[in-house]
Each structure stands twice: as structure tokens, then as C-alpha cells.
Design goal:
Radius of gyration: 18 Å
CATH class: Alpha Beta
Largest sheet: 5 strands, mixed
Number of strands: 5
Strand order of the largest sheet: 1-2-3-4-5
Number of domains: 1
Order of helices and strands: EHHEEEHEHH
Distance between the termini: 58 Å
Number of helices: 5
Strand content: 15-25%
CATH topology: Aminopeptidase
Oligomer: single chain
CATH architecture: 3-Layer(aba) Sandwich
Length: 173
């Protein structure tokens, strides 16, 4: 693509993109093996991303008004850095957009947005079983800080809220 314009563009998503975003979010969820996706509707995405208190922001890559991919992010704060950070929640490229530089362009767009907002760090999680994704992000300059993600949700979160604990063998105490 050197010296020529890509055959797609990256832009901030708008409320008119809610249906496209919902379809791509469901696509990524299914790709990652999530069984429940029926709650990811255009109406829900419109509320999550464009409602009175947006939970995330999104960039959209498109060619001839057809979505090729999206990047969902939200701001967090790092007390260690003493600054805001952009956390990428999802980066998804539809099959027709793969191998065309769409993922890189979405991250470049986010880096530009970070610069405009005075944000000096972008973080994301990479699947440990995807060597290809790990190489892609490393090639862009992302580094592993030596931390691992831990998550609690659903029934386990409810147990913790009730004060119950789970022992080493996975038995509720």
C-alpha cells in the first residue's frame, strides 16, 4: 500500500453504525466460542456506545460503506503512570477485510486519537492461544508487561459478593 490510498477508511463510529457494530460484536463473540449473543442488539449497542453514559467508543473500518472491522475501546486510569490509558476491548476484522491492513489501520487510528487526547498508552489483551495475534501486536510495538489477566464473572462474582470463597480445589468454602 505504499504511496497509495487504502481501499478502505477508518472513522469514529456513530449511532447510525449500531446495527453493523452489533453484527460484528456477535461475530467476534461467536468466533471466541461464546454461546449467548442474543443480547448484543443494535439497540443495546446504541445505548452502550452512544447513550447518555457511553461505556465504550468505537472506530469503524469500511470500504464503500460496507463494514470491514471495528475497534472498541474505553478510557481507564493508571495510578502507576499517573495518566489516562486507552484499553482496547475488541479488535475484529471481518473475513473480507483480512490481510488488507485493516487491523493495523484501526490501531493507527486509535493511536492518533490517543495523541489528540493526550493519552500516552494503549493496552489490550491478546489470546494466549493465538501466536499469529501475538506476532501482529509485537510487530506494531506492543510489549508484554509480564502480567496475566484474571477475570471473575457470573456465578463466581455473585459468590464473592456474598462473601463465599472458592478453595484451591475449586470447592466453595
Amino acid at each position: 500500500m505504499s504511496g497509495s490510498e487504502p481501499a478502505f477508511r477508518v472513522r469514529a463510529a456513530t449511532p447510525a453504525d449500531a446495527a453493523s457494530l452489533a453484527a460484528m460484536i456477535r461475530g467476534l463473540a461467536r468466533y471466541e466460542g461464546k454461546a449467548r449473543v442474543e443480547h448484543i442488539t443494535a439497540e443495546a449497542v446504541a445505548d452502550w456506545a452512544f447513550g447518555p453514559e457511553p461505556a465504550f467508543h468505537a472506530l469503524l473500518a469500511e470500504a464503500a460503506s460496507e463494514p470491514l472491522g471495528y475497534l472498541a475501546w474505553y478510557p481507564i486510569f493508571s495510578p502507576f503512570k499517573g495518566a489516562r490509558v486507552m484499553l482496547v476491548e475488541n479488535l475484529w476484522v471481518e473475513p473480507p477485510g483480512r490481510g488488507r491492513g485493516v487491523g493495523r489501520a484501526l490501531l493507527q487510528g486509535l493511536a492518533q486519537e490517543a495523541g489528540c487526547r493526550g493519552i500516552a498508552r494503549i493496552e489490550l489483551n491478546v489470546r494466549s492461544d493465538s501466536a499469529e495475534a501475538q506476532r501482529f501486536y509485537a510487530g506494531l510495538g506492543f510489549v508484554r508487561p509480564g502480567e496475566e489477566v484474571r477475570r471473575i464473572e457470573d456465578a463466581a462474582l455473585e459468590r464473592l459478593a456474598r462473601g463465599e470463597t472458592v478453595g484451591r480445589a475449586g470447592v466453595t468454602a
